[in-house]
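ligand=adenosine-5'-triphosphate
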Amino acid sequence: MSGASLRPVADEFRVPPNLTDYEAARASFRWEDARDALAGLPDGAGLNIAHEAVDRHLTGERATRTAIRWLSKSDDVVEISYRELGERTSRFANVLDHLGVAPGDGVFLLLGRVPALYVAALGALKHRAVLTPLFAAFGPEPIRQRLELGHGRVLVTSRRLYERKVVPVRAQLPELAHVLIVDVDGEPPDGTLDLTALLEAASPSYAIGPTDPETPSLLHFTSGTTGTPKGAQHVHEAIVAHITTARFALDLHPDDIYWCTADPGWVTGTSYGIVAPLALGVTMLVDEAEYDTARWYHILEEQGVSVWYTAPTAIRRLMRAGDDALTGRDLSSLRFIASVGEPLNPAAVLWGRDTFGLPIHDNWWQTETGAIMVANFAAVDVKPGSMGLPVPGIEAAIVRRTGDEEDPEAELGVEILHEPDVEGELALKAGWPSMFRTYLGQPEHYARCFRDGWYLSGDLARRDADGYLWFLGRSDDVIKTAGHLIGPTEVEGVLTAHDAVVEAAVIGIPDEVAGEVVKAYVLLYPEEESTPELLRDLQGFARKRLGPAVAPREIVVAKSLPKTRSGKIMRRLLKARELGLDEGDLSTLESDVDDRSHGVTPGPDDEKGQT
Ligand code: ATP
Ligand code: MG
């Protein structure tokens, strides 16, 4: 299913890629050099993310450039220059200071994608608080749990979100000392403060205190795709990896108009939706509204987006909407498209090439890794369906765990599988700058992620003879059938190569003979009808390409698939529902909004982020 690779044509680059010779960069790259190239705080006072992202631009000509161009739901456009962002974030840092918030204290954000979110995030980092952005669509209980686990001392939110989601749990949060409301109109609600008034009264200058690279920066929760979300703790040194990877893997240049569609409630929305683009001095778009096909194409065109970072779920929605939505649009400003979050099926990569003249560049990373680790690069061949090659500075291996985990005496290690095309767990040599430093409240779980100096990702992959990595599935989602191990990704990739299928999810269900058999849920293009003929055709299509042992035994047409709010298919939930098992932690569940009313697996119809 690998198909032909897509070769970049050097003459067609509008700007020379940051990474032109992958092998040479891999051989010579050193994290120490990348770190030394950063500005650093004045007088050698360390490395602070907000200094690199904001303050360091304020002395040069970049100060007047637009840092954030915000598009409101009602189509207002607000431009914030680097200078203004510098002042506003300093005011916020001063507000924290006046409130007695100490470096290391937890500052949580519960906001839609409004300017205040970006100001508070960077201001909190200036003050060396530990920042946790939450999805505004979370319900009260997930909010309470995360605030409690992260010892949230400050919460920045809107009046509406406060009243609906925080008031019901506030009494259970004794550590939550200050709630700052961004949109007070009149008197702030009881027990809260008017952030706008506090900002106005605060000084617009703030000297960032000494920041050791190991100073905690962000506490980010994982997506909860495989179970209860874990809180991954990051440090200020992560900025070295943010900048490096945004240059290499997103090919960001300072003059880009850049759009990352991820919400900061998910790590992509902070690492590449706040920190990295600002650190590189680009103009970054923020759209307050949720996904909408026509709106998205309009934004790409009207804003002249040059680099676009999005997710497979969004790409497949655009594919499903059909090309009519593109008629008359001029998207020629686009020069690089990247995707992250879950497997990007080959059909989606090719759709990018056919639709925009640009393949979609898949990349892989996790909340735990803090930054992109594996990527398809602008100047390197793209193999549709592969997540690409390790970023320079990152050593990746395919490994097998050794030792009996059940036996407390056993020596646990890893065996590195050097041969190409062998399936195993994707591991990364520990020590890159943005590596998480612990799982909050679960140090033993953190320790279990490391063996012999390798971080074990929990994802299964293989590496081909050219060094490209192919995602097979999460170890929890792998299907064991008649002695074979089947990764859902390959089966889903084949199903979505069928003209009628836009999205697919594959799980294993128990079978007396085979142990497990493969069951697939497919989402069709709107013009396709679910008929017995189509299903037979699809079965035949899958069998021909995968063989009878791997092809799905059963294929079901779904109206929607259960996904996390970061857009990942929750196979564990499909399985639990199929088998009538406990559904587990659903705090991050979002139903596929394409068709909520008829979905086989509707989720809670929670409100969208508001302020
Ligand atoms: P949880 O750990 O709570 O189950 P999660 O793993 O989905 O949630 P994230 O850290 O947001 O939380 O997601 C990282 C995971 O997403 C990776 O481990 C991988 O399984 C998947 N992923 C990310 N990018 C890709 C990609 N390009 N191809 C395939 N899978 C990807
Ligand atoms: Mg995970």
